[in-house]
Amino acid sequence: MTDYRSVRIERPADHVAELVLQGPGHGNAMGPDFWREFPDVVAALQADRDVRCILLTGDGDHFCYGLDLQGMAAEVSGHLNDGATGRSAIVEQAAEMVRGFDALAAGRLPVVAAIDGWCIGAGIELLCACDVRLASNAARFALREVQVGMVADLGGLGRLPFLVGEGWTRELALTGEPIDAGTAREIGLVNHVFGERDTLRAEALDRAIRIAANPPLVVAGIRQVLDGRIAGTAKAANREAATLNGMLMQSEDFAEAMRAFMEKREPEFKGR
């Protein structure tokens, strides 16, 4: 299989492909390499008939820091303060970025995610495209887009309510504040919590192996039915969020959020 910069593929068991997030951004943050490569990675796995289940993990101490703001600055800066043309470009870019997540959710392969350390922003939106989510005690989750002047537009607001309900989705999205692994289990964001990273991976791999042992056509059919219930909702929410970001990312508050992030200080928002 092709070598990628942002992920690697391993084969820990028969019919199981391990998809490892590996940067190159700090904490496996999702930068230009990730958004360019991920749709191709998903397509390649879906086309491999020997693969029946995906195990999704993060390299190092964290699952994913979410969007690599520094890495994406060059990709986005040209669209800012460019009127209608810039707004349209932001919407188109978001549609391209979410393509891999949508393909993961709609494809034939079930996905077991193992989360250790931080899972932030787009990392949570990636989890929403998975089937089984497991965490270690060290896992922490935050849908942090609101704190950096954006609306989550990669599936989080469309898919997350089906996992944790409307109330928790609103609290996570509106505050941007983190929750620990125990809370994530209580609200349904993850199914189980395990004490250590090694135990987490072993349990996640065990579930992937058990899923892969089932009839692959039936497993694909189950995913088709389940994703079909929410695909339209997620698509509409993503489009609306991206359209809003086309406006919001040209605001003074977004510029202030980016400056504060780079300067490692609290932002001062003005509502304009």
Q: Which architecture name does CATH use? A: Alpha-Beta Complex
Mean pLDDT: 91
Principal-axis shape equals globular
Give the name of the CATH superfamily: 2-enoyl-CoA Hydratase, Chain A, domain 1
Low-confidence stretches: none
Tell me the domain tally.
Answer: 1
CATH domain fold name: 2-enoyl-CoA Hydratase, Chain A, domain 1
Q: What's the number of helices?
A: 10
Strand order of the largest sheet: 1-2-3-4-6-9
Q: How many strands, which pairing sense, and closed or not: the largest β-sheet? A: 6 strands, mixed
Give a description of the structure.
- The chain is α/β, with parallel strands linked by helices and 272 residues long.
- The chain has one domain: 2-enoyl-CoA Hydratase, Chain A, domain 1.
- The chain contains ten helices and nine strands.
- The strands form two sheets. Strands 1-2-3-4-6-9 form a six-stranded mixed β-sheet, sandwiched between helices. Strands 5-7-8 form a three-stranded mixed β-sheet.
- Helix 1 links the parallel strand 2 and strand 3 (53-58).
- Helix 6 packs across helix 9 (216-248).
- The longest helix has 33 residues, at 216-248.
Can you summarize this structure?
This protein is an alpha/beta fold. Helix content is 52%, strand content 15%. Helix 1 packs parallel to helix 4, helix 3 (83-97) packs antiparallel against helix 9 (216-248) and helix 6 packs across helix 9.
